[in-house]
Amino acid sequence: MAKELNDKIIEIKGITKIFDGVTVLDNLSLSIKRGQFVTLLGPSGCGKTTLLRLIAGFETPTEGEIYIEGEPITSIPPFKRPVNTVFQKYALFPHLNVFKNVAFGLKLKKMPDASAKKGFRKYTKAEIAEKVNKALKLVGLEDYGHRDVNSLSGGQQQRVAIARAIVCEPKVLLLDEPLGALDLKMRKEMQIELKKMHENLGITFIFVTHDQEEALTMSDVVVVMNDGVIQQMAQPKKIYDEPSNAFVADFIGESNLLSGVMEKDYRISFLGKSLKCVDKGFEKNERIDVVIRPEDIIIKDGEDNGHFNGEVLSTVFKGTYYEMEVAAEGYEFTVQSQKEFKKGAKVSLEISPDSIHIMKKMLTINKHIGEVTGENLVTFCGGEFEIPTDGFEQGDEVIVYVPFTAITLTDDEKDGVIGANVTQSLYKGTYYQVQVFTDSDDDFYIDTSDEWDMDDRVGVNIDGGQVKLEPYSPDESDKESDDE
Ligand code: ATP
Predict the structure, then answer these.
(1) pLDDT band of 182, cuts 50, 70, 90
(2) pTM (2 decimals)?
(3) Which of 199, 203, 395, 430 is least enclosed, having the fewest CB within 10 Å?
């Protein structure tokens, strides 16, 4: 079936979803072209399933609108939308055989017929049989109609669930981690099968996964999400080669992520070395993030034969290449090579200018709105912090600028002014950049030498001496979103 790739089938405009006061999707917009295989990718809890359920109609947005083929659908109930969903837990009817499971939806459905009393009629037995057999053929189960669903393997059951979803000929198929319950081998097989089904059906697939490799191998477009916000939406190769920020780079596959400084156009320094790069247009000495893929680093025997001298810490054979951890300038590079370098070997690492991917830092300072609640006391993000308040009076609203280095985290939540959960921890070459999410629904970024694990419960303390206050007026809120 021909694909009309430039035609938008779904448009999501400014969708926000709040559950119990928690913002799960934050003013999210995207459009999906007809016939594409689009994957929503992101860590657990980032809002992928919620977005899918909003498109399906199982949830309603707190704000924003969803359009299918240009029509707003928010007030249209799920069963009237031209979409169908395949869930991770396929929930087949155990008392019905494969044919009857697939036919179930069709038996309830009515088709337009001008000669019928109400302008609609039910499908005939022959029509149902034709449609069910066609759907079963598409999923490779044409001879399985009579089989008891309990006698099928997990992969076969998932195929039945897909047949059941496509038999009503939806324009969009929503797939919520449909391969999540399968073992690795079956999962790989089903990835190929799904891709083929997508090509044969010619309809739009929106696929949810937290598996990077699955997203990159299957999709026309990948939407990387974190904390209810789209981090990047692009073709898989672009996402891999040119991640738009440190989160995407870290989330998509193995990478070496470092913090650096853009000395001038085409010149960068990191780990104490100044190197050529292919990027320009940054401010002089702007702090940036650098990503170098393990396969892009050239590793050579002996020292003084590249940009960094290093020592091999470990070597693992990965089937078609060796992956080595190499200590150099206090950083542990991950390097992939066809050639094996033994543990303990002294090596040189060479990095060509076009292997250095540079990304703007997402944020360079934490910025929050607060109120002066006493002499040298400022309340923001659900806590009262000691911060010099010279020039301000009690009751003044202020913008609070907290440098990443001004925050310390404590093991015991009670030792901090406020409590928070660690949501991200990225090693940046010489320090960790940790993101925490406070109970007041705010984010803080912290640069620290300590490693924290995802979901650690921590206390947050701030060195008030490093904090800067500015008067806040409501107009500033526009400026704030521009800055981010
Ligand atoms: P996973 O891969 O783990 O399924 P996800 O990215 O699909 O994660 P969602 O299922 O969309 O994430 O959930 C996003 C956040 O919204 C989570 O914190 C979840 O607990 C919360 N959430 C989802 N549905 C509800 C609900 N009905 N009521 C309250 N909170 C909800």
Answers:
(1) confident
(2) 0.72
(3) 395
